[in-house]
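User: I'm writing a short report section on ligand binding and want a predicted complex to refer to. Could you take this sequence and zinc ion and write out the structure as tokens? A short remark afterwards would be nice.
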Amino acid sequence: MRSPTFPLTRLRALAALAAALSCAALLPVSATAAPEPPPSSTRFVYAAGLIVPIPASIPHEEGDMVDRRILPDLRWIAQRYPIYVTDGYSGPLPDGEHVGCNNCHVKGSDHYNGLAVDIVPAEPSSICDSHWTAITRLALWAEPRQNMPVPPFRWVGYNGDAGHGCGNHLHLSWNHSPAARYELAEWVEVFPVGAGEGEAKPRGKKARAPKAPPGPMGGISQVTTGGLSPRGTGD
Ligand SMILES: [Zn+2]
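Assistant: Sure. The structure tokens for the complex follow:
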């Protein structure tokens, strides 16, 4: 017996169309917005660091903290991308209390210096669906080409990096001077934001890295190979 293939096919096509339309309707506005231009300049912040709670203006898991020197950049990102920070600083506070996840980051992780965040969509989803569209845009903004993050970012973990990517999480870490585990870096590279942008621009045309760290030292490992990023480059 022949099945009525035409009507069924047509029904399926209509169902697919309806599903596509409903997905499109669910897309956040930001998913279709033009991409942000890359940071035009960066600067090196030598002001004293401090591990502080992430403010409410940056959606985050309760208790998450970071070095305050990356807060303006994070706030700028949160205003443009629907992010939710799931982890920032990971380690002890002066009073002995532990912040962040325990033993969940690789050796030499920038999380131990409060200069990295893990990000998921504000509307959570554990599969790579439309909720991740804006996060993917953010990842590509910070790292347009694999293993070549745009300054001030030191390491970007997303598609192509084990344990990261659409449906998992995005890792962003900022360039900083060598610092031992659980210690604050002497300087942090950031992109200028807001009213202070004019004065925040680095001297000269291009940002110049002060005393670039020679390599793995104390607690961070700068990516200098230009090859495949091994696990453990700031995750
Ligand atoms: Zn991370």
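A remark for your report: Helices lie at 5-26, 71-80, 133-142, 197-200. Confidence is low (pLDDT under 50) at residues 1-31, 196-207, 212-232.
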